[in-house]
Design a protein that fits this description.
alpha/beta, Rossmann fold
Length: 146
């Protein structure tokens, strides 16, 4: 079962994490945000392993914001593992990255991401982009039954 109030942010850059959380706060999106700082931590959270072995894995996030350039396991491999797992294959995944590589865009969609957003470098544009994606994915989008 997905929880409309949980968002998983997979981000290793503390500045981008802080800006993303601030953008949600300013847009009054009150969803609980769980932050994973690398691909291993994200998979542990979603699959209930490692430091999240005690987590109730019947409760899944309504949205995963996934950076591509992550330590230990990169975002594309995280996405590939999510789509290969029966429990996580339908979870909405939005790639939120600084990558300008067309191959990253193609690979992300090939592996089943739901959306691909390049992080704007301008503060105001970044804030607007995060607020809009939060509003759409957490308020307007209808989730599949899990």
């Amino acid at each position: 079962m997905t929880q409309k109030n949980i968002l998983l942010l997979v981000e290793d850059n503390p500045d981008d994490e802080e800006l993303t959380l601030l953008a949600f706060e300013q847009s009054q999106i009150s969803n609980e945000v769980v932050v994973a700082h690398d691909g291993v931590e994200a998979l542990d959270y979603l699959l209930g392993t490692g430091m999240y072995a005690e987590r109730d894995i019947s409760v899944m996030p309504a949205l995963i914001l996934l950076d591509l350039q992550l330590p230990r396991i990169n975002g594309l491999e995280v996405l590939q593992r999510l789509r290969a797992n029966q429990r996580t294959k339908l979870l909405p995944v939005v790639i939120l990255t600084t990558s300008n590589e067309q191959q990253d865009l193609i690979n992300s969609y090939s592996l089943g991401c739901n959306s691909y957003i390049r992080k704007p470098v301008d503060y105001d544009q970044f804030m607007t982009a995060v607020q809009q994606l939060g509003m759409y994915w957490l308020s307007l989008n209808e989730l599949p039954p899990m």
